[in-house]
Design goal:
By secondary structure, this protein is of the alpha/beta class. The chain has helices at about 25-35, 55-65, 95-120, 145-160, 185, 190-200, 210-220, 245-250; strands at about 15-20, 40-45, 50, 75-80, 125-130, 170-175, 230-235. The chain is built from 8 helices and 7 strands; from the N terminus they run βαββαβαβαβαααβα.
């Protein structure tokens, strides 16, 4: 404890971060929260900051070139970029499937690998991979998307073990339904929102800033022994199956 009772390690002053998909939704909220906590952030997206499609090799090379020359190390990597096509598996084309896989998984694996040397130099590095409860439960998002989010969780566990010796912590966040531009159609459907409220004990969608707060915490010094975790931030949706006793009370 510092003088005055304030605990040290609850900020990111002096940290350098790369965040993919940082122009809207959860990614934008993470960029803003990291900056609020004192980090310098390179935001990567298709329409703001470092312009790059991280689902492609050329896009990932653009990220490497965009890292400031005076950064001798990288302290934070948030792999947030993602896409989805909500439709039945039988209606997917191979090109659509590969787009989801490359954007959601290949980018995560390859940026972690390519930025590993800079992360290793940090001595306090943290990777946060944004997954989804769709990687745990069947929520109708699409099989391809669900596969990528399950992969995000296990990639995080695997790298946490492999890179612990290098001072790199790796964790994943598994959000539930979150109010972002990607879920706008769902938010506009009273029936869909009713299903979410019924299946989520907290009775609502999450907010991007609620995911961002967890992402920032995972990168802080106070979380220095936390690695290899997949943290659901979903209003207890993934913990809930049914309430049989309530049904019995209702007759």
């Amino acid at each position: 404890m510092e003088k005055g009772g304030a605990m040290s390690g609850w900020n990111l002053e002096g940290y350098r971060a790369v965040v993919t998909g940082g122009s809207r939704g959860i990614g934008l909220a993470i960029v803003e929260e990291l900056r609020r906590q004192g980090a310098t952030v390179l935001s990567v997206s298709l329409d703001d900051g470092c312009l790059a499609d991280v689902g492609t090799e050329a896009g990932r090379e653009a990220v490497l070139r965009a890292i400031p020359a005076d950064w001798d190390a990288l302290d934070i990597l948030v792999n947030n970029a993602g896409t989805n096509l909500r439709k039945p598996t039988a209606e997917y084309t191979l090109a659509e499937y590969e787009k989801v896989i490359h954007t959601n998984v290949t980018s995560m694996h390859e940026l972690s690998r390519l930025l590993y040397p800079l992360l290793k130099k940090s001595g306090r590095a943290s990777i946060v991979n944004i997954g989804s409860i769709a990687g745990i439960l069947s929520v109708g998002s699409s099989a391809a998307y669900a596969m990528t989010k399950a992969a995000a969780a296990h990639l995080s566990r695997y790298l946490a073990v492999e890179w612990a010796k290098d001072g790199i912590r790796v964790n994943a966040i598994a959000p539930g339904w979150v109010a972002t531009p990607l879920t706008e159609k769902i938010q506009q459907s009273p029936k869909a929102m009713g299903v979410i409220a019924e299946r989520t004990p907290m009775g609502r969608m999450g907010k991007p800033e609620e995911i961002a707060a967890v992402a920032a915490f995972l990168c802080m010094p106070v979380a220095s022994y936390l690695t290899g975790a997949v943290i659901p931030v979903d209003g207890a949706m993934s913990a809930f199956s049914m309430d049989m006793t309530a049904a019995l009370r209702e007759g």
